[in-house]
Amino acid sequence: MTQEKAPARTKGAAIVALMLVQGFCAAFFLTDLIFDFFEESAAEILTWHFALELLANLGLVAGVIFEGAYLVRLLRRQAHADRALSVASGALHEVMEEYFEEWRLTPAEADVATFTIKGSSIAEIAKLRGSAEGTVKTHLNAIYRKAGVNGRGELVNLLIEEILGGSLLKDETAVTAG
């Protein structure tokens, strides 16, 4: 389980626990109402107190049902978002591999490019690869030259635009032109 999924699961468990407590309370109060109904006379049942207690119980039951439906909807939405993120992650990896082959990056350059795209600093890349920072800088200059970009931002932008089909850039241009 990733760190990002842990809080979502904790929130889901908290909502389920709350629903269980509310369900227990609803069952308790409904049982009390049923006993009151059979033990009291008709005149005592037709009071504001009994009607208010009945409405409160119905509201509690409706709340539990609403929370359950909402939780199911949220869990489905989360599962859909997780699948979309997984697809996007796979797409990014495929796009990166295609570009790395097209640019004829060496395995070392491809490794450095991957770490760069993931946001690692030069010092972090050097540490991860067990090489000097100067070597990483040399690889980065070769990567930027082969890719025809001027830096990390342009490199990442190139890959993101490929995944999005250039739609982001087109939308931005239309907004600034209009």
Structural notes for this entry:
This protein has eight helices and no strands. By secondary structure, the chain is mostly helical. It is rod-shaped, with a radius of gyration of 30 Å. It folds into two domains: 5-83; 103-177, Arc Repressor Mutant, subunit A, CATH 1.10.10.
Blueprint (SSEs and pairs):
Elements: H1 5-39, H2 42-45, H3 48-102, H4 107-117, H5 122-129, H6 133-147, H7 152-164, H8 167-177
Helix pairs in contact: 1-3, 3-7, 4-6, 5-6
Based on the model shown, name its key terms.
disordered C terminus; mainly alpha; Arc Repressor Mutant, subunit A; rod-shaped; 8 helices
Q: Helix coverage percent of residues? A: over 70%
Overall 3D form: rod-shaped
Report the end-to-end length measured between terminal Cα atoms. Answer: 46 Å
Per DSSP, the total helix count is 8
Cα-atom radius of gyration: 30 Å
**Class inferred from helices and paired strands:** mainly alpha
The number of distinct β-strands equals 0
Mean pLDDT over the residues: 82
- Uncertain ranges: 166-178
* SSE pattern: HHHHHHHH
Short description:
This protein has 178 residues and is mainly alpha-helical.
